[in-house]
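Justification of resources, computational component.

The compute hours requested in this renewal are based largely on the per-chain cost of generating structure records like the one below. Each record pairs the submitted sequence with a full structure-token output. That output is archived, and it is also reused by downstream analysis tasks.
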Amino acid sequence: MDMYILLEVTGIIDSEALLKNGSCRILGLTTANPILQIGNNVFTGEYKETFGTMMFFDENDDQGQNSDEPSLGYICKADRKLELHRIILKPKKPLEEPKGKDGTSVTSTK
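The structure output for this chain reads:
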């Protein structure tokens, strides 16, 4: 089953970077805050209502009467979009070892 989602991505990306990477990963698509990865760029977002209805079309192979204009076929419509903003991921800081009352390290014997 195909799914069409209008993505509004802000925070870096130019069309050449998107075409160069060629693919993307989306995590948590059905959650409130999905995450999108394009190459090394990571975005987080939320679903918003659109102003009006967004319609999706596909360009057909057959040309209309005027060969300068493409022939379009209706795919579907949507009234929500996924707004995504770039985030910067930083490595986690290492966890500190637990300290005893006297300030010495406490180690587990498990």
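Residues 15-21 form the longest helix (7 residues). The radius of gyration is 23 Å.
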